[in-house]
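Archive record
______________

***
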Amino acid sequence: MKITWLGHASFRIETGGQVLLLDPWFEGNPKFDPSGRDAAVEGVTQILVTHGHGDHAADAPLLAKELSVPVVGIYDWVSHVTAVHGIEGVGFNKGGTVMLGDVAVTMVNATHSSSMAGEDGPVYAGTESGYMIGSEGRTLYVMGDTDVMADMGLFAELHQPDCAIVPIGGHFTMDAKRAAFACKKFFDFRDVVVSHYMTFPLLAQSADEFAGLVAPVTVHAPAPMGTVEF
């Protein structure tokens, strides 16, 4: 499994013969280098979205049209963007599993919010979610934007993920202490990739506190466009 951080909560995930673009946010992302755009989207097979907020989903429909690939996510959001933008989509809901090639993606709960910008304020975009991505003998838990929640204990029993993408920035998601608590309380991770931090002054600017709290789990904090493999 090869994971490239594209800044903020955007990732390129290469596994099982698929290339998943997770929560792509390119336009306006302070941590995304436009010179790396071609490399970021090369060979993408699907665009996976956790929720409707602009810093996760705003670029997804246009990228799907440009790349001729489907968007994958919560049924309500997918139904809306496929109708408006004339793109393909795979809409499903929590507890459901879809096969993307040989990669199994199960939607699980998250606790956050989900909306799109509208003329008169926020517009409903379904509900926030996370994903369990099973491929190549490993299960990656994409937490999405979330706080720690008791549901994670059930996820651990049901899916036994051994690696994760974890938000640590605080303010809009878990901070380092809450994220480390979630990881150690519920899971037996071997590898964790940090997410949703460094983007703005409001968010945590380093993964050091989290790494110290979650030790001895291996914490991967690549630079933007940096890649980790496990």
